[in-house]
Each structure stands twice: as structure tokens, then as C-alpha cells.
Design brief:
rod-shaped; 122 residues
Length: 122
């Protein structure tokens, strides 16, 4: 005699997922800035006047005048502006499973004793 039993188990199956991609996007940015620039000029003018008492003539002297300017300075800093959080929850569920099981039944007829019936065995 052969009889089937129903055994219910479980297995893990792939049901897809979520893919989060990050990519770098460059965006041109233009900012205006006002810059100053100095220019030194030398002018020679004809003069005809007498030398004053506090003017020291006939001395070696050097006069230096520096010319300054400004240039643009660019700096960048990174700031976190958003976070992406991916969570996964696990839930339990109950499912009823129905199926059909088979079995064989054996009926034996004993020909040696006539007139007596035999019952099937399970």
C-alpha cells in the first residue's frame, strides 16, 4: 500500500527590489564680482620757481609707489542637502495551502474461503 502525505514548507523567492543610483551632474554657474585696479602714472610738468628753505635739493632719493589690483578668488565647499534612506520591513502572513493527496488501496480476495468477503485495507 502506498499513501501520500502533504508536507507544507516554504522557500525564499526573489520578488524584485529597489535600486538607488547616484550620479554627478555638473551645472555651469556664473557670478559677478567688482574688482579694483590701481594705475600709477608719472607726470612731468615744467616749473620755474625759487627753491624753498625746507626743500632738500641735491640729495639722492628713491620714491616707490606700488600699484595694486584685485583678482577673483573662487572657492567651493560641499554641503549635504538631502539624504536617501532605504528601509525594508518584514511582515508575517498566514496562508492556507490545499492540495490533493493520493493513496492506493489494496483489496485482497481470498479464494480459499468462498463466501467470506474481505474489507479493503488502508
Amino acid at each position: 500500500m502506498v499513501e501520500e502525505e502533504l508536507r507544507v514548507g516554504k522557500r525564499e523567492v526573489d520578488e524584485g527590489g529597489v535600486k538607488v543610483k547616484s550620479r554627478v551632474v555638473e551645472t555651469p554657474v556664473t557670478e559677478g564680482v567688482s574688482l579694483q585696479q590701481e594705475r600709477v602714472s608719472v607726470e612731468r610738468r615744467p616749473v620755474n620757481r625759487p627753491l624753498s628753505a625746507n626743500e632738500h635739493a641735491f640729495q639722492d632719493r628713491t620714491i616707490e609707489v606700488e600699484q595694486k589690483g584685485q583678482e577673483a578668488v573662487v572657492s567651493k565647499h560641499a554641503r549635504v542637502t538631502e539624504e536617501v534612506v532605504v528601509n525594508k520591513d518584514v511582515q508575517q502572513r498566514h496562508q492556507k495551502v490545499s492540495d490533493t493527496v493520493r493513496r492506493t488501496e489494496v483489496e485482497v480476495q481470498d479464494e480459499r474461503t468462498k463466501g467470506r468477503a474481505t474489507t479493503p485495507r488502508r
